[in-house]
Amino acid sequence: MLWDNIVLFLEIMLINIVLSGDNAVVIALASKNLPVAQRKQAIWWGAFGAIALRVFLTLAAVYVLDIPYIQGIGSLLLLWIAIKLLVDEDGHSDVKEASTLGKAISTIILADFVMSLDNVLAIAAKAKGEVGVIILGIGLSIPIIIWGSNLVVTLLKKFPVLVFLGAGILGYTAGEMFMADEQISHLVLGDIPHYVLPTVTTVIVIVSGVLKKLIVRP
Fold this sequence. Notes:
The protein is 82% helix and 0% strand. With 218 residues, it is an all-alpha fold. α3 (36-64) runs parallel beside α5 (101-115), α7 crosses α8 (149-158) and α9 (160-180) packs antiparallel against α11 (196-216). The longest helix has 29 residues, at 36-64.
């Protein structure tokens, strides 16, 4: 049980970091024009607000996913998010620079809300109701993203395998979500073994990323 929670925690951390690569850019941009002291305050309070908001939204999503057919629909959305992570290179760095501390904090929180809906769905699906692990995973990964933004961006660029690994976890989770919605999975897939669909969705995600790499290669 303890080992399962440790693995789950590491998966949540990886998902959060991989999916939040652009958040670090947004935070840096939003507080760019502030004096150094205010910039630190904006990052601190913006991070606190972002963590609280994301924990609340994720816990809400955990309960929403218990509604019949919602998991089936959510699994398709999560599969799309996983594929998009590997094939879509467009960023979210079009957030305006803020001129005051209050505006910077609100910009950081709002940007994190808009850009974190994919994180919320992915983590809620992966955590399967483990509230403590959810809070710990989100609470620790966001500060890493914010204060170690340069390191995070560098690692993701230097080791693309991390992005592929995160996307693969999302793909597998999407398959698990669909199978967990017994009403819709039985209707669509019948009695196939549980591991088949998660394996297929993982392969779909990874192959999509590999094909994109091959297509854009000079």
